[in-house]
Design goal:
This protein has a 3-stranded parallel sheet with strand order 1-2-3. It has 5 helices and 3 strands. The protein is 50% helix and 11% strand. It has helices at 6-14, 31-42, 49-54, 68-77, 83-92; strands at residues 2-3, 27-30, 60-63.
């Protein structure tokens, strides 16, 4: 299992190798990261569409921050990183 952010996803999509992620088993994409990808598609970065195409695959899981603990970690990280990175770190935290 891996947690990915928009940078990882966009770099793999740009190089047409988004398929490499399937080798890691379950791929976790925080919803904040998915929103960044959708904004990129809306801005005309068509290569990001390959990411949108995989979100319904069995090996990809979109997750949201649900617990109070997760929201606290997330908000604390926003002083140093952006939303997608904060969400990824939060999801990956034990």
């Amino acid at each position: 299992m891996i947690v990915v952010n928009a940078t990882v996803l966009s770099n793999l999509a740009r190089s047409n190798r988004i398929d490499l992620l399937e080798n890691y088993g379950q791929v976790i994409i925080p919803f904040q990261v998915y929103e960044e990808i959708l904004k990129g598609i809306a801005a005309g970065y068509d290569f990001l569409k390959s990411i949108d195409e995989i979100v319904d695959e069995d090996w990809v899981k979109l997750v949201t921050l649900e617990s109070g603990k997760e929201r606290t970690i997330f908000k604390g990280l926003l002083d140093t990183v952006d939303y997608g990175e904060a969400a990824g770190i939060t999801v990956a935290s034990p």
